[in-house]
């Protein structure tokens, strides 16, 4: 077990309001857990490095849950557990398939953890829980675009809290008819999570939001899914690594080189900026959400990423009254880099487990 890394927001001394929600984000490099009370206050957090394989992921998840409960002390009352994990997830049955980076081909994770802990467990795809966590954040914790891309105004605004008005904004989030939020995960891959009225949308086969494998890009780079020209090949962390190779975190270097006049860097930056803007347009035109949040590892670039995407959205708007009428930059936000939004989202998703029937947890093999 690794050393405890309490989150700055964590407050183990606070009075616990209502049932406890435990959220565990099982990622490729770390497993991060949070405990929240009924008012969404974070009570405790803990993280450990990820180990691969069914048994290791199961063991570490149960250990982390028990550690969080220990941190809270006695008299915790009722608790629910939400787990977020990459791969294909059957949320109703708690089954995970093809979590390749975790060395899991098939695993009945939800039933196994429910049996070990005696707690109701809900399992969701990692992008979906990050979407739920990001969508739960108030307007003032999400970063809004600068008013003028690549301008001093944009850079000034990045240093102000998003709730504080800038020269021309940031603009308030638009009114929502049915509270639809889209979360575009710019991680190793590209996928979107859709939250409608506080609940994760799953679609018929669980493929909702898999926009990374829409083959639309005219560069026609080969994709690991077998197609060419997938959006993921130009709008993801792996795309940045492929197009600007040789650097561990290519985007900050790419943006810096481009701003210093490096022509090749500008070309690559344009490819990536156009690709992410295309992802935003696809989500906007298919789901029409009031808010589109950029998250995932690439979002840690911060304001320069928002500026880049806004610039490319404005380019599309300049040649299309229709696109201009959608006011996409107004809907764009960046997920906060300093909050474990995926683990928070897992905790919120876990509350749904309290409504699950016991029969949902029949079939209790860890491995298969
Ligand atoms: Zn693909």
UniProtKB/TrEMBL annotation:
<comment type="similarity">
    <text>Belongs to the ROK (NagC/XylR) family.</text>
</comment>
<dbReference type="InterPro" id="IPR000600">
    <property type="entry name" value="ROK"/>
</dbReference>
<feature type="region of interest" description="Disordered">
    <location>
        <begin position="140"/>
        <end position="175"/>
    </location>
</feature>
<protein>
    <recommendedName>
        <fullName>ROK family protein</fullName>
    </recommendedName>
</protein>
<dbReference type="InterPro" id="IPR043129">
    <property type="entry name" value="ATPase_NBD"/>
</dbReference>
<feature type="compositionally biased region" description="Basic and acidic residues">
    <location>
        <begin position="152"/>
        <end position="175"/>
    </location>
</feature>
<dbReference type="Pfam" id="PF00480">
    <property type="entry name" value="ROK"/>
</dbReference>
